[in-house]
# Entry
Amino acid sequence: MKTTLTEENYLKALFHLVDNEGKVTINELSKFLNVKMPSVNNMMKKFAEKKWVIYETYKPLIVTESGRREAALVVRKHRLTEMFLVKKMNFGWENVHEIAEQLEHVHSQIFFDKMDEILDYPKFDPHGEPIPDKDGNIISQDLQKLSHCEPGENVTFASVTLSDDAFLTYLNDRKLLLNTKVKIVKVESFDKSMTIEIDGKTEILSKKATEKILVKK
# Structure
């Protein structure tokens, strides 16, 4: 049975919000989707009927293995589309999120499998986030926020937690792209802004930015 656009948006929200124990609350979903609680409750009852979640009144939802897979497959379509737009259509990484939001609801599995083949089966999207495979499996990454790094550390920019075009343009202006080697020079005690060094040049990043940048050591 094909999923509806609304169901896919809920599935994607579950993917992003679920904790390490496979749990998420109705309130978290309501805030994330900007949907009223009664509507979320009604949808989660439908998800429970499909065995995607375990739903009990006044308790956190538990996302089942089936639900996790369905959610991952929606995210797969989105991230593959973003990669295709960047690699084959020469879009900037700051311009692809909204287009992928629309194309992710295409139901043809063959379409996305072909896209995957054309791209030579990429493991990550243009923002450094892992692309689930066609079985819904996803690579785990050992990353940390740039804001958690200390002066003197050398790290590699691996991913972002925000695909907003304004934020990605902010990074473009500072020549801070994926796989860039970064040295932390200084962290201001007052506002936690960070001075970094890239290819011998220094840049200052706000704490708001360093919170949304993920790096590997």
Remarks:
- Residues 65-87 form the longest helix (23 residues).
